[in-house]
User: Fold this.
Amino acid sequence: MTVDDVKFSFERYRGASHALMQERVAGIETPDPRHVRFKMRKPWPDFLTFYSTASGAGWVVPRKYVEKVGDGGFRDHPIGAGPYKFVSFTPGVELVLEAFEDYWRKTPSVKRIVMKSIPDEATRLAALKRGEVDIAYSIRGELAEELRRTPGLSLKSVVLQAPSWIYFPEQWDPKSPWHDLRVRQAANLALDRDGMSEALFLGACKTTNSIIPYTFEYYWQPPPAVYDPAKAKKLLAEAGYPNGFDSGPLYCDSSYANVGEVAVNNFVQVGIRSKLQPIERAGFLAGYSGKRYEHGTLRGASGAFGNAATRLEEFVVKGGAYVYGSYPDIDALYPQQADELDHNKRMAILQKIQQLVYEKAIYAPIWQLGFLNGVGPRVGESAFGLIPGFAYTAPFEDITIKGA
Assistant:
């Protein structure tokens, strides 16, 4: 890997936050074979956050190989600098990787990794029990209980940097019940977060009452979330809805329709009547970012890395990819922190914004997802949790098989 590869990869990048990168970065230089210099148009404290974790801009591809085979050829047979080499990929079926013996960090223990696509949760568990796979991702509810009771199998949980929430896109419409702060506060009080976590994820989720992961830099801890249906009904009555109201659809990613179902049930208990509308994940995300769910409510989530500023930019501040409306006081504060180089001053601004998000009840945060996974008897080190907040087994080179 060379400095030329780094420069080429950054200039080639067209993924998330590409426009922001182009706007803020004046140029990239390679003064010698071991150094790369990024020049900013103005101070940008979050550059490394965006470059390394909040986007894919830091992924380095080999310039000479890409130019030789083209983007299509690289997509069909990618090469890189990681611990495993690409062998084959069958879309919707499996990805096969082979260990790279000379990897700089360490020689991988497992020589061959096969990632199988098994969309159905029960089928994944059955494959794990039969020994057809050694690790199964995302096993929830009753299936997780069954996994935990099965001799030879172990349950591994990881709390992700992935809060879930209910969003109220109609809160900026004066004709909507959601425009009234008391209604949004009632929705927050109606959610039985602990009960939902226990039923669906065996209590593994972490309730923080924020859409910002508690592990993120500049995080502000709001007051604890409260489950109080009686107070929720009282607030609805004060807002002019003693008999509740029809809220329309509650849109959600169908992979987590179970979370949406519980939220719908919690809401109806206090008089907020809605109908679950599950949508396949890619379609849901396209609709969410395309602002197509402006009527009703939606269950959202984000597992992106970054910090409080990057998360607020996407989900709270005017112009954000998933922002249906915003508040002038928050919009005025956000630019003040963007080029503030004093860490403490910047933290104060970002925490004030988070406090306003809580006080305005822009969201009804649920919890940070407790991701449940199954591990078979052959596995020594599964590598779950070795990268804090990451959902899956990683780094791959740390995975071990017993006796190998």
User: Anything to note?
Assistant: The mean pLDDT is 95. Residues 343-359 form the longest helix (17 residues).
